[in-house]
Amino acid sequence: MISKNLKKDVNMCLLSAFLLGVIVTFFVVFHCPVIQDSRDSIRKQGLFLVQLYKVFGSKGIKKFHELSGERR
After folding, report:
1. Does residue 53 contact residue 61 with C-beta atoms inside 8 Å?
2. SS3 40
3. Which of 23, 27, 24 has the alpha carbon at shortest distance from 35?
4. Ranges under pLDDT 70 in the chain
């Protein structure tokens, strides 16, 4: 039979290993270059739309999407 202290230490070790794995996975997934490039392109599109809105207003944005064939 396993003593309480040993059982507690094993559980803490497993929990620590699990949390370390989650942290490493988080950094790998959310900091890979493909995801960063995707985020950058989305930011650029958003900035472009903001600039269009400032220049043309909401009617101009709708007209731009009609002309470009995008659905919004």
Report:
1. yes
2. helix
3. 27
4. 1-2, 70-72
Tokens of 50: 């903001």
User: Does the reported pTM lie above 0.90?
Assistant: no
pLDDT score for 71? 61
User: pLDDT at position 21, please?
Assistant: 94
CA atoms within 13 A on the CB side of 32: 7
Question: Comparing C-alpha atoms, which of 44, 70, 50, 19 is closest to residue 36?
Answer: 44
Tell me the CB-side half-sphere exposure of residue 1, using CA atoms within 13 A.
2
